[in-house]
Every structure is written in structure tokens, then in C-alpha cells.
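Sample intake — Type 2 DNA topoisomerase 6 subunit A
Collected from: Haloferax elongans ATCC BAA-1513
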Amino acid sequence: MASDSKTDEELARERLIDLAAEFYDQFDDGEIPTMTLPTRTKSNIEYDEDSNVWVYGDRTSTRSANSVRGARKLLKAAYTIEFLARQLEEDRSSTLRELYYLSESWDAEEAHFSDQDESNQLIEDLEIVSEVTREDFHMRPEESGATLMGPLELREQTRRGEREIHCQKDVGEGGYQIPNNPDTIEFLDHDIDFVMCVETGGMRDRLIENGFDDDYNALIVHLKGQPARATRRITKRLRNELDLPVVVFTDGDPWSYRIFGSVAYGSIKSAHLSEYLATPDARFVGIQPQDIVDYDLPTDPLSDSDINALESELEDPRFMSDYWTEQIELQLDIGKKAEQQALAARGLDFVTDEYLPTRLDEMGVI
């Protein structure tokens, strides 16, 4: 999120200490301590048509110690800042879950978090006001397990030093696991023609077993459902730094279309990081509603929540294009949804021999 001659860790620690110093200065000046943040509500999220990502609007809210509730929030922020600064100084790391439990050991009982949602939100608050990502705070989520498989050679920084890895030759069938902070990876060499982000593990395994990565010089990124930040970040880096086309292959339902939207345009929850995580020119492969019709795929009926979600997407700026309007209206008309694995009804090789080559050729990717 920010660049400086200092290392990311040094910059992160410096900005955390600056935040704590602001509280101190407010006390010293006889002022009630405050912290100002963008208002984190859906009504304050704007779709930036220039960058094609979600961003926060101009509305702000202030955390103030002039109420008991506000004072508790700032107390928790101060304790968390102290913990993070010490963690960076000691070159340690921790998970978001560990932070929640660690607060139980803090001497001020009022600083303890009531649940993990509260501690997670505070870390996001600190990201926003410091303009430093949680990865540079050395905060990790629980393992996402997302992987890469394809003709990419990279250098990874680890606690045991650097290691060079080829994401086909040096890994097993499971692929290369994306680290929590993909900015520690250096891309060395590749023979990739395009990046394919795949929603489900079953389809990812089918593509690898059928040799799709070899046959089409594809880098397969397993999204593992709703993609983690690390997965979205490395996808953006592959697009920007290696100038590779990115396509997204999901189930054919409204929730999977939102997975595509998260990769391409960002999400409301991480609007403060959209330019860091989103890949606006990523393109959707399928499963399309039109595919359900054309290939007579096995389906499930749309539920009421599916219908509501599709109708909502018709009003969503991320899906306001002729293509998406046509596809969503078709899906509402047929009342059906289909999984990626439904393509297996035509044989285990159909997806790699016919469906994907046809779609990717239509899109001009191959």
C-alpha cells in the first residue's frame, strides 16, 4: 500500500508508533483522544469507474474516548499497536486467531476482545489509518491452502533463507502453496500463456490430472472458494508484472459470480485494499447460464436466495454490462444453476478437450 526506502517491516513499525504518538500528543494537549476512519458501511462504498474497483467514499466516523464504548475501542487499539510493534521488532508473526486469544493475557481487562470479529476489524482499522497491510504487520490468517500449478519459476523468501521453486517440476500434485505474503515472492522465469483461477478443488484436480497446465501453458490458481487476500494479491501481480491474461472459472451460480467479482473488482469488505488486490481486467470463463442450455448440463433449481442474489447482481455496478445482464436474465428465466463438475456428465475429458478450448478460443485467450 505504501512505498519507502525503508523495509516494509520498518515502515509498518514506524507508522504504528506514529499512531500511538498521536494518542499521546492528544493527551498531552489536553484533548480527548480520537481516531478517524472511513465510515465502513455499504452506503459509503463507491465503485470507481476509472479503476474498476470498490473504494471507500468521503464519509468518515470518529472513534473518541469521550464515551465508555469509544474509550474501550481506543484502549484495545493502543494495546494492539504495542503488540504489533513488538512483534515486528522481534521479527515474529502471529495469526488473527492468536491475536484474539493473546488479548486475554493483557493486564487491562477492558482491552480484551469479546470475539474474533472484533479483533479482525481492529486490524483492518489499523491497516486503513496506517496505510500498511496486515501482512506487513506480520499478521497471518489461518491457512487458506490455495495453490499454484504451472510453468512458473520463482524465488521465495523463507525463515530458512531463499529457495527457488518451479511450480510444476519441484512440487507434487498438490502444487505450490501460496504464502501469506506473496510480495516476498520474486518471479524468475515462466512459460505461461495465461492464468486460470479455478473455484473448486475438484475441478483444479481434474485440470491437473488431464495435463491442462502442460497442454496450454496455463498457470492454474486454485481459489479454494472465496479467495483469500494472498490469492488475489498474487493473481494481480501475475497480471501486472508478467502481463498475463487472467481468466476465472467457477460454478454457474450467483455466489460464484461474486467470487469472480472479488478477483476482478475487489470486495466491499476489503475496499481499502482494492488497488492492491483486484485485477480489473480478469475475465469470466464459466460456467455460464448459456452453457447450461447449450450443453444440457445437470442442474439444481435456483433457491429463493439464489434468485434474490441474481436480482441484486443486476443492480451491482460490477455486473452492469450487456454480457452479464444477458447471462443473469437467462439464468432467472431457466431457473437453474450448475456446478463445474456437471461438465463430467459428458465425460471426464470433456472440460479439457472441448469446453475450455472452445471458450478460451471464443475469448481470444488461446
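Post-analysis note: The chain has 13 helices and 17 strands.
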